[in-house]
Amino acid sequence: MNFLSHYYFDRHTSNCYHVLGTVLPDLIKNADKSTILHPEKLSYPSGPAHHICNGWHKHLEVDRHFHNSAFFKTHSHELKLRLREVITGSPVKPFFLGHIALELILDNLLLTTVQLTADSFYAHLDSCDHEAITDFLLRSGMKDPAAFIRFFEKFKQNQYLHTYAQTGQVAYALKRICMRIWNNPFTPEQEESMNQVIIQYREILKSNFMSIFEEIATLMV
Length: 221
Known about the structure:
By secondary structure, the chain is mainly α. The protein contains 11 helices and no strands.
């Protein structure tokens, strides 16, 4: 799941460090894909590090349930087939595209049906102290937390998750993610065709997309 979908499960918490933990695995991956941490194997008995680690555990559990669900398997596969038809010649793997497209559509639907707001998510991140984050990262084995903090500040300043509320921007976000792996992944024509696929599939999901959030919430009780 993507940032806002992870946030959905803890949108009512008052603990900013727990919220940070629920998205930190993906933030670290976006900042530097070569960095691999496993804080879930360590012990943080108290303080912000404890709450970040609890959020980290929650992230892993939510992703495990999501990726094993019939919802994910069905809709990521269908999106893969539809997107594959419009990206002929692209180096991007259709399975990857279907996976990420589904996650971005879910974030879009959470925003556009007002299940949560991006403002509240960013407010939690803004409340987290750099020293507390750095302490957690150092204890988890990160060699250069300062580089992550710089990325984290830019992530908060850009606030690009607001653009997910604009359905027409979802294909652009998908392209930007693909550009981390492939150079010039799509032609302008392919991007426009992808946009149409995403708009159409969003309408298919709109009536029952909350079922996956309800299913995961039940499994985590």
